[in-house]
Design brief:
about 25% helix, 8 strands, 8-stranded antiparallel beta sheet, alpha+beta, about 160 residues
Length: about 160
Amino acid sequence: MLTLEETRLLIHGTHKEFDKIMEGTGNISEHDISMLKDGDLILRNKKSFICLFYHAGIYCGNSEEVIEFSAKLQQGWTAVASCSSSDVDGGVTKAHVTNFIGEKPYIVLRLRYGIPKDFAQRVKVAMKSQKKYNLLDNNCLQFALDLLGLSTQSLPERQ
């Protein structure tokens, strides 16, 4: 279940463990990309009539990729499924940071005390994940926080 801190992060883009590094209105610049570091939490605005939350991804560094966990339906990726409270198939993907942000407003947050030493290994393991997505129990933010070593428990496999 989402904690109060996680809910604040999804709605307001603030959390006691992070400093805000930058924010923008979309189309991140090459200069801003050069300022990103491994493990930066990128919150992309997902506000619409359907869903009022940010979508979270983690910057993976030298290849300028962002790893993310999203809901997946038979017809492809969709914002509607990510706002559902039922379990749906989830998928882990990487996208170039410019494609992840697109034209949407975004916030970049950085952990105050640095990322786990095994961050690269965590990303490798996460890329093979086949977990179920659930807005309340197993979502993009919880996935991102787990990669950064902040989750209170690892995300459980669902049957």
